[in-house]
Amino acid sequence: MEFKDLGLGPDLLKALDGLGYVEPTEIQERAIPILLERNSDFIGQAQTGTGKTAAFALPLLQVLNPDSNSVQALVVCPTRELANQVCAEIDKIAKFTKFKTLAIYGGASYIAQKRSLIRDRPQIVVGTPGRLQDLMKQGVLQFHNAEYVVLDEADEMLNMGFFEDVQNIIAAFDKNRRIWMFSATMPKPILNLINKEFDHPKTVSIKKKTLSNDDIEQRYYTVMRKYHKEALCRILDTEPDTYALIFCRTKMETRELADVLLGKGHRVETLNGDMGQRERDVAMERFKAHKVDLMVCTDVAARGIDVNNLTHVINFGVPQDNESYVHRIGRTGRAGLKGISITLVDPKDQFIIKKIERFTNKQMIKAKLPSVNEIKSSVVTTELENIRGLVETILEKGDEFKLDDTYKIMEECFEDFEKDELLKVMFTWKFNKKLLALDNIGNLDSIKRGNGSSKDNVRLFMSVGKTDGLTLKILLDDVSHKFGLKKSDIQNVDMKTNFSFLEVPTRFRDKLLKSKDLRIRSRKVRFEVSQARN
Ligand code: ADP
Ligand code: MG
Distance, CA 51 to ligand 1 centroid (Å)? Predict the structure, then answer.
């Protein structure tokens, strides 16, 4: 099916072509023909990112009269960001038509919005419930000639407590108005509203096949909460060209994480509820314009954010509920592009991963944090590619080199060195500090037991490992028995091939360090205080 088969005019088809929309999405394909008939109320249900905006914008632009200068359709959205986005999307689609649109929302100048209403006479108004009602009360916004009310993201409006307002707004319309409603979910109050206000609505419901789409690779990393920041930095080090939303649970967390990322040289913006509208707009603009690569946000602040081409969605900790997980990751892997979702999960929250998997009906990939070597090669590769790119650009403009005789001095100065040697020196110069620092980083994703290490514990190296026949049971039994510890005192055991690590209460430290005659599977066991943060 193509857009031209849906009954849309040439001006609209031309705009779609310019936008690069090759074929209609499922909701568009099924909703547009119904909406063009103009003879019934409508309910469209489809998950986020399925193109619901164009599904109602296209029919509106087709059926409204561009030569009449009164408000003919009202689109109600839950947030200012969404109102702006919807308005921008309609404008793009209306590019070759005479239609005018206006976004109306709180937190911005009344005067400018009123003036636009009166002077520009938009046919389509997109707004948030509060400000819409204000302007309606003042008589500036009237719906005498308006036939269509679109409720966009109705479930979000419900969540935000706007339902009474929505009903008031609908009440301002003539009885023969049409209501078009779009919503990802249909909770009870929405069904009630439908019963009350809708007249034999036609419904299109796009089943979520598997809830999260196949273009998203879903990974999770099990890491203790306190190491999440460090773990994320390592992941980002090995994923070049990231353009990502990072979701945190609290405002405070967004700030802390953003600080750490900034410290590591990432380009970051934050979006949280503590920020004023102006500040948030600036942050959003910078992110959308790719001036920064990472946007650290809370669910609430990110409501309605719609950014294209995200490479990753990162869950800094598992989200509160399945719905928000799906909602979050649905922001990547759009329009046929591949996306990656990354979830950092504390060992004690791992069961939530299982719940999410059941909900989405898709398995998530359990990933291992990149090793030191992987991080090193990724860091070096990324840097070198940048430098190479620069060198190539300069060389392409070669004839513009401004070399005079002084260049000879440099040439002679380095004459005796081989290219090989020079490269080695350059490499050391550029990378050694960074690489040495990486050598000392600990391993974060080892299997942890109990509540994790505490200040009163000491981490010990133990000279036997799996090849010696060591199992967790033997280790716990023998060590506890030998030194008079409770098994639950032994924590964060990490068994490697030839050796192991474990934590014991500090008061047992010397006892273990001094022990000479513990044997496990006939191998003599020696303890040392562990140096690395294993
Ligand atoms: P929803 O409201 O269902 O969450 P949107 O209307 O915001 O989805 O659309 C999601 C993204 O998909 C937007 O960036 C939009 O520009 C893009 N889009 C919409 N329709 C198409 C299409 N037919 N082809 C390609 N991209 C589309
Ligand atoms: Mg939408």
Answer: 3
CA of 234 to the centre of ligand 1 (A): 33
Please give the structure tokens belonging to residue 36: 């063009």
Q: Residue 316: enclosing H or E segment and its boundaries?
A: strand 312-316
Residues 168-194: tens digit of each pLDDT: 999 999 989 999 999 988 889 999 999
The answer to pTM > 0.85 is: no
**Tens digits of residue pLDDT in 124-140:** 999 999 999 999 999 99
Is any atom of ligand 1 closer than 6 Å to the C-beta of 133?
no
Q: Is the CB of 452 under 6 A from ligand 1?
A: no
- Residue 394 Cβ inside 6 Å of ligand 1? The answer reads no
Q: Could you count the other beta carbons within 10 Å of the beta carbon of residue 436?
A: 9
Strand, helix or coil for residue 126: strand
Q: Residue of the nearest CA to atom 20 in ligand 1? A: 51
Q: Is 21 in the pocket of ligand 1 (CB under 6 A)?
A: yes
Pairing of strands 124-127, 73-76: parallel
CA distance linking residue 525 with residue 518, whole number of Å: 6
Answer yes or no: are the C-beta atoms of 499 and 462 closer than 8 Å: yes
- Quote the ligand 1 centre to 334 CA distance (angstroms): 8
Structural domains of the chain, with CATH: 3-206 (3.40.50.300), 216-371 (3.40.50.300), 373-442 (no CATH), 457-529 (3.30.70.330)
Task: Take atom 23 of ligand 1 and give the residue whose Cα is closest.
Answer: 24
State the DSSP code for 244: E
- Protein residues within 5 Å, CB atom, of ion ligand 2: 52
The residue type at 457:
N
| DSSP sequence for 127-187 | E-HHHHHHHHHTTSS--TT--EEEETTHHHHHHTT-HHHHHHHHHTS-TT-EEEEEES---
* Atom 18 of ligand 1, nearest CA residue: 51
Tens of pLDDT along 428-487?
888 887 787 777 677 776 544 444 455 678 889 999 998 888 888 899 999 999 999 988
Q: Is any atom of ligand 1 closer than 6 Å to the C-beta of 332?
A: no
The atom of ligand 1 lying closest to the CA of 28 is 23
Give which of 177, 421, 221 is closest to 316, Cα–Cα: 221
Return d(Cα 265, Cα 267) in angstroms, integer: 7
Q: Return the amino acid letter for 527.
A: F
Written as one string, the DSSP assignment of 12-69 is HHHHHHHHT--S--HHHHHHHHHHHH--S-EEEE--TTS-HHHHHHHHHHHHS-TT--
Measure CA 85 to chain center: 18
CA-proximal residue: ligand 1, atom 22 (nearest): 21
What pLDDT score was predicted for residue 403?
77
